Prior knowledge:
The complex is a heterodimer. Chain A has 10 helices and no strands. Chain A is an all-alpha fold.
Amino acid sequence: MWDNQTIMMIVEGTGVTLYMTLVSTLIAYALGLPLGIVLVVTAPGGLMPNKIIFKILDVVVNIVRSIPFLILLMLIIPFTRFIVGKSYGATATIVPLAIAAAPFVARLVESSLLEVDHGVIEAAQSMGAGNWTIIWKVLVAEARTSLIVGGTISLGTILGYSAMAGVVGGGGLGDIAIRYGYYRYQADIMIVTVVLLVALVQILQMIGTRLSRKLDRRITR
Amino acid sequence: METMIQIKDVTKTFVGKDNTVEALKGIDLEIHKGEIYGIIGMSGAGKSTLVRCLNFLERPTSGTVYIEGKDLAALNNSELRNMRTQIAMIFQHFNLLMQRTVIDNICFPMEITKTSKKDAEARARELLSIVGLTEKEKAYPAQLSGGQKQRVAIARALATNPKILLCDEATSALDPTTTKAILTLLKEINVKYGITIVIITHEMSVVQEICSHVAIIDEGTLAETGTVEEVFQRPRSKAAKKLVFQGERDQYEEMKGKRCIRIVFTSNSSFEPVIANMVLACNTPVNILLADTRDIGGVAHGQMILQLPEDEGIAEKMIQYLKNRKLEVEELDNYVG
Ligand SMILES: Nc1ncnc2c1ncn2[C@@H]1O[C@H](COP(=O)(O)OP(=O)(O)OP(=O)(O)O)[C@@H](O)[C@H]1O
Ligand SMILES: [Mg+2]
């Protein structure tokens, strides 16, 4: 049964999973990074405190985060169809993945930025820095290690979600695992896909950790 | 002399959920160009709040802050940011950007003022040589000692040629030797560039070391202001006395109940023979509990604490003896508490 076709399918599945994960993470960051920044900046005691904006975003983020992924996936099928043109397949899965991950990313970004020492922000203010400069050159630049760690966590989480999307024919390794392992009782194929998923998470984690350590100047070597 | 900073009836009230704190209760202060002005007070007295009002990191609840005659409250945001490039600040915990090299930290304020990278780096190198850290250019703050970090912070503060340098407990995280070195550096900068320096501290020794003037702040009000010499030789307010005699308090507690006096020597009295002669004249020894000479603003200044003999008559005679030699004698019992 380990014919060429099966192997090809698994190789392709791995590629599809990576494609979904990376593109979804990218979009999730395109949404979540600004969202996280706005949360930090508008929070009470932030650079530009704004109760209304902060509260609205805070609630929205919490709501989206608390909807189980599979339900969110179903809920936004009309929206997905509108964007991608169809509601199944790898590209269509990217839409709910990115939307589910964006508030998660926003929270990770928020917590990374909050780690930046308030004294450093104050020092920048005392030099006459504007908020824009402070956001990019102090908050984001100083939190970069933590942001990269957050990015690694997001990749792993989104990869896990992408496997879940297999249930509704999302494509990728998760899809294969369910079709062969669950519906056809081909345990070996399922095991291989699971091992591949684990390996992918491990590799992403390793790259992320290496990168963040390499870029962290607080560590003395 | 030209007025650099003028503070008029400044108050600051922090309104919390269930309490309000009046951190400043009507402060008036004038600081002239080129002065090194110390602001000293106990913890919670309002020192940091006051110094943060000088660059509007904290906006006063009422009152006015003038920098070179300009009312800070009248400036719009961009004018205020511009003004801040002229009022540098250094901090107790240095507040360097940990992810940037030393030289990039020093370049940071010049990025804000949009100086070209080339000019900024040249200026940064010049500053590094002034603070004596040329070889650390490419190091990261995590690789530096506390004293070195503060030197970087000073270099960073000077980058935009500010007129004023505010120091909030700039040496409080440093050991005595390093403190001395940093204070010497600040003094050099003051002399060389004529920059006005405001030093916030809770340590009298810092004020003695470099300040020309001092203000004593106590529970949000100014207890006393004057030249360092004046305030040290004749502290009038309770808060001032408490600070000036800070170091002696411990010895002092033990001697409660016994009669102790403090003698103040000014520049023209040499004290060794006076005490020796007094002992000879009265034929009774005394305990010298503390002898301390300090160099305040270039004038030798000293004090001694003596424990007098039990015998009231002899004790009285000794006090008379000292007073006759035009020394200031103060009974310490009055001061305890
Ligand atoms: N942002 C704030 N919100 C509420 N209260 C504050 C705030 N900042 C300072 N205070 C209060 O104002 C008073 C003066 O504080 P400040 O920090 O100016 O004291 P300090 O003299 O600098 O003390 P220290 O030597 O401990 O630094 C304190 O009672 C403090 O609790
Ligand atoms: Mg303070």
